[in-house]
Design goal:
Length: about 190
């Protein structure tokens, strides 16, 4: 009885490895069995060779997603399968996303399209990126997409300092990208 009650509590699914098609089929069957007794609310994908859109599509109660890195193939084919991406985006309830390893800026744009109700987004960055340009483009894309839900954006910037924060605040005000906002720096994480 206790184990049954434990299954009814909010559940997490961590996918660590999907080396071949047999493993992926087994994962699909296992998810089906899990969903027959409980819902998955948190998904963590620890490998970059796993396609997150396929998993999200199978987990309708999911509201948080932690991805180690996006699969490059997923980004390449996203435009070709725009209708499928649109269906997955409209049918998910994901509001919290954490991208641990960002390889390209396009990955963040893809996640915004995949999770249109996103309220919290945390992104770790790659080196040698123009943070001002990235933040400007990101906020413009969020505004153009009509996302009124995003309330917290956390960017890992190991080189951040007060001067950078001031420049970003000035740029946001000058471009009128946000009306009421606070930028806060804590342990190399910049919160908007």
């Amino acid at each position: 009885m206790n184990s049954f009650i434990e299954l009814l509590k909010p559940s997490r699914l961590t996918v660590c490895n999907a080396p071949d098609d047999d493993y992926r089929r087994l994962l699909k069957l296992t998810i089906g069995e899990i969903l027959s007794i409980t819902q998955i609310y948190h998904l963590k994908i620890s490998e970059e060779n796993i396609c997150c859109t396929k998993l999200i599509d199978k987990l309708p109660s999911l509201y948080s997603l932690k991805i180690f890195s996006l699969k490059l193939l997923e980004l390449i084919f996203a435009d070709f399968y725009e209708h499928k991406l649109h269906l997955v985006a409209n049918n998910n309830n994901i509001t919290k996303v954490y991208l641990f390893k960002m390889n390209t800026i396009e990955e963040v744009y893809f996640l915004i399209r995949l999770c249109p109700d996103i309220a919290y987004l945390k992104v770790n960055f790659i080196n040698n990126i123009d943070y001002e340009v990235f933040l400007k483009d990101l906020l413009m894309k969020i505004n153009n997409a009509g996302n009124q839900y995003l309330h917290l954006l956390c960017l890992y910037i190991p080189t951040a300092n007060n001067e950078m924060i001031s420049k970003l605040q000035d740029m946001i005000n000058r471009e009128k990208l946000l009306h009421r906002f606070i930028i806060k720096l804590e342990f190399d994480n910049m919160y908007h």
